[in-house]
Amino acid sequence: MEQAASVNADPVQRSDSNGRSTQWRNWSGFWLLGLCNNFAYVVMLSAAHDILKRQESGNATASNSATVAVDFQVGNSSNSSRYDCNPVSTAAVLLADILPTLVIKLCAPFVIHKLPYGFRVLFCAIMAATSFLLVSFSSAVWMSILGVIFASISSGLGELSFLSLTVFFSRDVLGGWGSGTGGAGVAGAFLYAGLTQVGLSPQTTLLIMLVVPVAMLISYFILLVPPSSLPQWKSRETEYAAVGSEERRQLMDESEEEEQEKSTPEDRTTGPLTFTEKLHIIKGLLKFVFPLGLVYFAEYFINQGLMELLYFPNSSLSHAEQYRWYQMLYQVGVLVSRSSLCCVKIRKLWALSLLQVVNAVVLLFAVGYQFLPSAWLVFVIVLYEGLLGGAAYVNTFYFISKETEDRQREFAMAAASVGDSLGIALAGLAAFPVHRYFCSL
Question: Could you tell me which of 335, 382, 347, 408 has the C-alpha nearest to residue 175?
């Protein structure tokens, strides 16, 4: 009897073990996808600057024309400002890195369903690899900027695609995705700075990072365990056409009338969303998109418009070291909060937005009136800033996933991703006049 019981329990145990293994593989797969997707975006902000600097030093005449063509000159190049300003706002490269992403996120959700997920991931990996190659081998300014744009295309299309992809898996993979995107900031900044610090050239460093697009393909095609409902190589419209009317009738016959009124996974096969339905979904998403956009506007206004100006000359750290620590602590805050979904969930997204705006206002006045006593207090503020931004991101998409109907969820996840990019783009634009004003003092 005992032997029979143990034999009967074995299939159950194996099933449970397989379920945990699949869950772990999917969580890890989305963590790596988040890391790989945002990696090129993070690295390009630093790498493009290094490549442009090398090109300018190699050809003084070309340097003058290139700087005018690409960078927005502000303040006084003699660096006589009391803020120890760089004459070029750091928001310039940010705009080149975010505007293509913004355009993609505004347009793609309406047509991206025509492209199966397998092709999307291949395209994103190719774009990321091309960006590394272009910036690494660039011989002109336009090639470096084109590389930044390709990285932006890869990141933007990847983000909305992978967020939509989470719909086909258990909701906990959102935690893996959020943590991975947070890790990209720390890993990208640390690896690029570390490899160049030990003596490798920016070109060689970027070529080494070609392993990242390869890791993206491995994560998606090998590590993930996709469900049968995932449109891997066929578009959703093809799947709709393949489902015959007889199959639909069988599905209806098998379900009770009361259950038809409820949202079920089968709702995804009832037909594509119409344009009117998509607009209605977008209207319902505004309560999520506005707070997310406001958080990121305040966040990147601080990062691109104020951080460089928060310099404390009496500190033991140089200006460059202070700025480097600002960025690193911000990224650490983002990583921690984007990994927190398994521990805490925050529904009051407007509270996070308002707290971030308070951060921006305090630091704006701190730049203007210079009342903060030391860089150490700024370190605490920017760490807190990263915590707020990361928490807003993961909680926004968690509650969209939870509160949206099954049939609408895939489109909703993609459409809502425009919030952070819109906030970043507006912050980049707002940073120019602020930087110009303070540097002119």
Answer: 335
| Res 253: pLDDT | 46
Q: Give per-residue pLDDT as tens, 325-335.
A: 888 899 899 99
Which residue has better confidence, 234 or 303? 303
Burial class (CB in 10 A: 0-12, 13-18, 19+), 254: exposed
> What's the average model confidence in pLDDT over 77-94?
57
Q: Is residue 129 part of a domain?
A: yes
Give CA–CA dist 260/407, Å, rounded. Answer: 13
DSSP 140: S
What is the spatial distance between Cα 152 and Cα 239, in angstroms, rounded to a whole number? Answer: 31
Domain that holds residue 419: 25-59+66-236+272-439
Torsion of CA 240, 269, 405, 340, to 10 degrees: -90
With vertex at residue 423, the alpha carbon angle to CA 189 and CA 176, rounded to the nearest 5 degrees, is: 50
Q: Distance between CA 179 and CA 173 in Å, rounded?
A: 10
Phi, psi of 88 (to 5 degrees): -110, 125
Number of helices (H), then strands (E), belonging to the chain: the values are 17, 0
Asked which of 186-195, 208-217, 265-274 is least confident by mean pLDDT, the reply is 265-274
Q: Is the model's pLDDT at 426 over the cut of 50?
A: yes
- Total domains in the fold of the chain: 1
Q: Tokens for 152, please give them.
A: 């932006």
The tally of CA atoms less than 13 A away on the side-chain side of residue 335 is 17
DSSP secondary structure string for all residues of 186-244: HHHHHHHHHHHHTT--HHHHHHHTTHHHHHHHHIIIII----TTS-SSS-HHHHHHHS-
Residue 74 within a domain:
yes
Q: Supply 220's token pair.
A: 């998606």
Q: Cβ(322)–Cβ(312) under 8 Å?
A: yes
Q: How does residue 73 score in pLDDT terms, banded at 50, 70 and 90?
A: very low
